[in-house]
Amino acid sequence: MIRMPPPSAAGLTAVAALLILSLQPAAAAPSPQETAGSPGGEEVLATVGETRITVEEFRREMANRGGSVPGSYATPEQRRALLDEMVRERALSLAARAAGYDRDPEFVATVEKMLARRFLRDQLEDRLEAAPVTDAEVESFYRSRQEEFLQPARLRAAWVLVAVSPKASEEEVARLADRAAEARAAAEKLPTGERALGPVAQQYSDDAATRYTGGELGWLYEAQADRYRWGPELVRQAFELPAPGAISPLTRGEAGFYFLKLVEREEARPTPLERVRSGIRARLMKQRNEEARARFYERVLASHPVAVDEARLGAIAPLAPTERPALAPPPLPGG
Question: CA end-to-end span of the chain, whole Å?
Answer without folding.
Answer: 54
